[in-house]
Amino acid sequence: MKTRYLSIIIMVLLFSVQVFAQDRQVKLLTLEWEPYVGANISGKGFAAEIVTLAFKKAGYKVTIEFHPWDTALEIVKTGGADGVFPAYHEAGRENYLLFSNPFSKSPLGLCKIKDYAQPSPSGGFLYKRGANIRYGVDPRIDQTLALRELKAHRFGVVLGYANTPEFDSADFLTKIVADTDAENLGKLLRNEVDLVVIDRYVAQNILVKRFPWRLTEVEFMEPPLALKNLYVGVSKKTDNPEKKLRDFDAGLELLRVDGILDRIMTRYGLKKYP
Questions:
Q1: 170, 155 Cβ separation under 8 angstroms
Q2: Which domains are seen in the chain, by residue range?
C-alpha cells in the first residue's frame, strides 16, 4: 500500500511537470558499451532504455549520440551536450558534472586467460598463460596490496575510463592504453597484455560477439575490484542542470517503484546487484 501511494505521488508530481513542459529536450552522449548501451542493439541497450524512459516520464525528449568516452567527457565539459551516461561518480568529474541517483551497478574487475596445463616431457605439467595470475590478497580487504602482488603483469586499460581509486593511483603497475574494451580483449587474446580491467558483462558480450571461438579461454577474476554505481552525469554548463537532474531522478524513482527497472534488467539477462 505504501509503495502504491508513493507511486501515485510521483506520478502527480511528474504530471504537473509535463503540463508546463513544451518540447523539452536533452542531448546525452554515450559510448559503445554493450550490453549497457550500443547504437546497433535493441533500444540502444539497457542503460539507454532506462535513461530515456526516466526522462520521458519527466516530459523530456532524449537525443543520444555515440562518441569515444574521452571525447564525450570533453564535450560535456564545455556544455556541448546536456550530459553523459553511464558514468561512474569520480571526484575529478565533480568539477563539470552533477550526478543523478544510480540506476544500476557495474561489476568491474580483471579478466585473464584461464589457467591450463599440459604434460611436460620431463614429467609433471607445464603451466601456460594465466598460470599464477591470481589474488594473493582479497581486493575487497586491501586492493592496493592485491594489485601490488600482480605488478609483474601488464594491464590493459581504456583511455578516459575511471576504474577504482586504488587502481588508477597504482603507478607501480604497467598500464597499456587502448581506445576500447574490444581492443583491450583483443590484446589479451594476442598475449599483448596479461590482464584487462573491464566490466564483467561487457567482457562477456564482446567475447560472444567478436571472439566466440575463444570464449572458454577467458575468465573474470573473482571477486570484482568494485561494484560501481552507474549514473547520468549532467553538465554544469547546460541550462538549469539542477532541474534536469531532479526531473530525471523523479522519473527514475517511478520506474523503480513500478518494477520497470527490474523487468528491463531481466529482459537483458543482467543480474541485479544489491
A1: no
A2: 2-106+228-267 (3.40.190.10), 107-226 (3.40.190.10)
